[in-house]
Amino acid sequence: MALMITDECINCDVCEPECPNGAISQGDEIYQIDPGKCTECVGHFDEPQCQQVCPVDCIPHDPGHQETREQLMEKFIRLTASK
Question: Cystine design at 23: which of 28, 32, 37, 79 (Cβ 3.0–4.6 Å)?
Fold first, then answer.
């Protein structure tokens, strides 16, 4: 399951540099997560790094993008194959 950033985001800028896949970017009003790049840090870390550093706890799972750990690992392999 990909993650999402809710409107509780305070634009503190700490999540973006923590994302190993470059899935987080500044949106029109708040940061946003590209579900096509989000692997919940599977393949990189044991826990999603953006959730670990978020001071307002505004990065839940995105119910619109449900994926298994195996699917997240496949996405990680696809994303890193071109690097």
Answer: 37
